[in-house]
Amino acid sequence: MASVRLLLVAVIAVYELSSFIDAVVVERDRRDANTWIVTSLETKPYLSSTVANPTKNEDYEGYIPDLLAKIRAKLNQNYKLQIVADRLYGSETRGVWNGMIGEVKDGKADVAAAPITVSDNRKNVVDFTKPFMTFSTVFVVRKPANGSQEFKTLHDLISQPGMKFGVLQHGTTEQFISQSPNQDLARLNIEHVRTQEEGIERVRGGNFAFIIEAITAEYWTRKAPCDLVEVKINDSDLKAREYAFAAKKNAGYTTKLNQAMDELRASGELEELKRKWWKDECKSSAVSALSHSAPVMIILSAFLSLLIKTVKY
């Protein structure tokens, strides 16, 4: 009889524990009902972590965290920022989507906030906001050393012996290149890199041209050690592209996001964010060098003036 009572007590205890857990889950869901799960990935200057193991929104910095903070203030909308599990933007293979696009499509995230290129294929599975950036496509190459050939045109670059070309893996650039009416572009033998940073390191290693969005190329070519340059592609060869946030299909999130972005654009805050994160370190260093040389130039100028007067008289 005692063993029966103990069994009954155990059953009641398990039931009460289960009920408690269910109540906690319900409360969590209720509390988080108005919190968007926002997926992103780490790539400068858009987003990078400031701690070894980020767990909260404040553990990230960059253009995207700043933009999200401004949107939150406009909409009074809570969000939880998380890094996409496979570190990819999103492409489709046999009907299955990976990356941030896949997480939004599959309901693992409500919004993808990153430099995501808008494409017709992606539009089939997610809703896009209005673009927060518009750009062309360029090649980033290592700056030629003194006396070396300078790449002024696409033909110069393609004709360079041993030159290899790369794009970001699972991005949209390769598709844009392959569909170009420019046959030189369409026939390029493309290699893949997993991150922007990997592509830039390949460029610095020499004989490698990284094909990326002009707005991102602008960031890298303005950074010390100032050893990179852009080679522009004729605008008629590739149409302009756009970065936008992606949201769950038909969830209505883009209406709110567009409202906030329109206000930020009108107030000049979007442009202010770009100036903050796209600092021109190369221009600054040139100005600094010029300012340091100013005293020397003044002395030289005075010396030349005195020399001219001496010769004259």
What would you say this structure looks like, in words?
This protein is an alpha/beta fold and 313 residues long. It folds into two domains: 34-133 and 242-277, D-Maltodextrin-Binding Protein, domain 2 (3-Layer(aba) Sandwich), CATH 3.40.190.10; 137-239, Periplasmic binding protein-like II (D-Maltodextrin-Binding Protein, domain 2, 3-Layer(aba) Sandwich). Helices cover 45% and strands 21% of the residues. The protein contains twelve helices and 15 strands. It has helices at residues 2-31, 63-75, 99-105, 120-123, 154-158, 173-178, 183-186, 196-204, 214-221, 253-266, 269-277, 281-312; strands spanning 35-40, 48-49, 60-61, 78-83, 92-93, 96-97, 111-117, 126-128, 133-135, 137-142, 164-168, 190-193, 208-213, 228-232, 241-248. Strands 1, 4, 7, 8, 9 and 15 form a six-stranded mixed beta sheet that branches. The protein has a five-stranded mixed beta sheet with strand order 12-11-13-10-14. A two-stranded antiparallel ribbon has the order 2-3. A hairpin with a 2-residue loop joins strand 5 (92-93) and strand 6. Mean pLDDT is 83; it is low at 17-31 and 285-304.
